[in-house]
Amino acid sequence: MAKTILAVDDSSSLRQMVAFSLKAAGYDVVEAVDGQEGLDKAKQQNVDLVLSDQNMPRMDGLTLIKSLRALKGYEKVPILMLTTESSDEMKAKGRAAGASGWLVKPFDPQRLIEVVKKVIG
Amino acid sequence: MTRKRILGPHVKRLLSGVSTHGHRHLNEVETDLLQTKLLLEEAIDKLTSSFTAIHDTVSARQGAIDRLLAGAASDEDRAHLAGMADEIAAHVNKVITNMQFQDMTSQLIDRTLKRVNGLREFLGTMGEHGADILPDSGSEEIVERLGKVNVALATQSRELGNVLRKSVEQRHLESGDIELF
Do A105 and B104 touch (CB under 8 A)? Predict the structure, then answer.
């Protein structure tokens, strides 16, 4: 059974490209337009990995991580940030919030899939 | 003369503040626009190359496809056709990386728009306070008004700077760093 990845990004083109890349590698992808919708979808169905942007309306990525970590069943689900933010300060905040990794945009599909495989198989 | 001496430092401070804050914000606008221009130019160059490469890959295999359809394909033709999907996938991966210029430039343009709106409000504040200064206003009243304008402008400028933290530092479309914690 294919593993499910929740892709959260307010850019529709980015979501499309992430979904295209991951589906081509055999994963199921659930999309959300911001942190709030991501949290709602995570409550509706269990996912194996969350891939989230940082800067989004309504709820940003760091808040989403903290909310997910407080959610039963998501204490250890890998959460990767995929964002334009590249500062050490932001990475440290992500790590402290409970992120499992930090990927700086733009992403290369091949490298993204390698990382996802490494994290969830 | 006395009135000029009283007003002079306050007017100077106001003009200096407007100049400093205005320059700072316009410099940021200029930097963001230049960064946007760089990313757009690189994206268009790379996307053009990738689409041309995809076209060339398909065209180069057309002969083999024709021979395959005619039942006359050689082993070499079959090998080339088998590798075509991988070749195209590699080009598509590059397209996906370079298409992300839209996400980055969109953030830069949003930031520029917010800053331009902030500058408009900044100038609006000056206009509002200026309108309250009447031709027969006394120097004490004018000094008080100029002081309020200075404080308002400094506050607006600081607040604008605080909300516009730069989230896109990329100047090229190379794939970014990956760090697993």
Answer: yes
CA B133 to chain centre: 38
Query: In A45-87, which ranges are continuous DSSP H helix?
Result: 61-69
The answer to whether the Cβ–Cβ distance between B175 and A106 falls below 8 Å is yes
3-state class percentages of chain B: helix first, strand second, coil last, to nearest 5: 85, 0, 15
State ipTM.
0.86
- Taking only the tens of pLDDT, chain B with its 181 residues reads 455 557 788 788 888 888 888 888 899 899 999 999 999 999 999 999 999 999 998 888 888 888 888 888 888 888 888 888 889 999 999 999 999 999 999 999 999 998 898 888 888 888 888 787 777 778 888 888 888 888 888 888 888 777 778 888 888 888 889 999 9
Q: Do A111 and B175 touch (CB under 8 A)?
A: yes
Distant-in-sequence, close-in-space partners of B68: CB < 8 Å, separation ≥ 6: B77, B78, B81
This prediction's pTM: 0.83
Which value, to the nearest 10 degrees, does the dihedral of the CA atoms of residues B86, A3, A101, A111 take? 0
Measured in angstroms, the CA of A47 and the nearest CA of chain B are apart by 19
- For residue A111, list chain B residues with Cβ-Cβ distance below 8 A: 175, 178
Closest CA to A114 of B104, B82, B93, B174: B93
Structure tokens at B23: 């320059």
Would you call A8 helix, strand, or coil by DSSP? Answer: strand
Q: How many residues does chain B have?
A: 181
Distance CA B128, CA B116 (A): 18
